[in-house]
Design a protein that fits this description.
By secondary structure, the chain is α/β, with parallel strands linked by helices. The chain has one domain: Rossmann fold, CATH 3.40.50.2020. The protein contains seven helices and eight strands, in the order H-E-E-H-H-E-H-E-E-E-H-E-H-E-H. The strands form two sheets. A six-stranded mixed β-sheet has the order 5-4-3-6-7-8, sandwiched between helices. Strands 1-2 form a two-stranded antiparallel ribbon. The mean pLDDT is 93.
Length: 205
């Protein structure tokens, strides 16, 4: 495990993981709760999230033009990755106008429903039809929010080359739902809930 990945796991276990009795947005109950936003909106957590997601995207050679997901769990992940990709593109660019080996990855967000005013569009930000994109989410339980983002991206005209979530809860058939919607695009979880729980318990002892 890379240093950034281990640091992100530790931060998630300390900032985002709680044991107890919780009711989930899916309607189920659980003996633990993960609120990834307390990590992805943490200054150091944002840096680590961008690093880990970008490393995984580059390792898999997906070469996306953009990254996006359903607001608002995906929002900080999208911004962290887009910002880091721009920093690296500038860092590795040898001269103006020359293509970098580290291209920028732009961001887009998917509204839960279309706006009733303005342009009425559901996809905000990067909007290039036919572009290769990666769909991201912070937590995947039933997969409903991830599936919504996938469906909206396909409807808009994006080509989905990968799907990623920060933490997969490993329950409620969430992975199967996401993989079915992704139609062949790989689904990658950075961590599982078991990983975060184990790290949380390790630091309690």
């Amino acid at each position: 495990m890379s240093d950034a990945r281990q640091q992100l796991l530790t931060l998630l276990s300390q900032q985002s993981f709680r044991l107890g009795n919780f009711k989930l947005s899916s309607g189920g109950t659980s003996d633990y709760y993960i609120d990834c936003r307390t990590t992805t909106l943490h200054a150091e957590g944002a840096r680590l999230t961008g690093r880990v997601f970008l490393d995984e995207i580059e390792r898999r050679r997906w070469n996306p033009r953009a990254i996006g997901g359903l607001t608002m769990g995906a929002d900080p992940v999208v911004v962290s990755v887009a910002l880091l990709s721009a920093q690296e593109a500038h860092l590795h660019s040898t001269e103006p106008g020359v293509s970098s080996a580290h291209p920028m990855i732009h961001g887009f967000l998917v509204r839960k429903s279309e706006k009733a005013h303005g342009t009425g569009q559901r996809v905000e930000g990067f909007r290039e039809k036919g572009a290769r994109v990666v769909i991201v989410d912070d937590v995947c339980t039933t997969g409903a929010s991830t599936v919504q983002a996938i469906e909206a991206a396909i409807e808009f005209g994006f080509e989905i080359v990968g799907v990623m979530c920060l933490v997969e809860r490993e329950e409620s058939l969430g992975r199967a739902a996401v993989e079915r919607a992704a139609n062949g695009a790989p689904f990658v979880s950075i961590f599982t809930a078991s990983d975060v729980r184990a790290e949380h318990l390790r630091h309690r002892t």
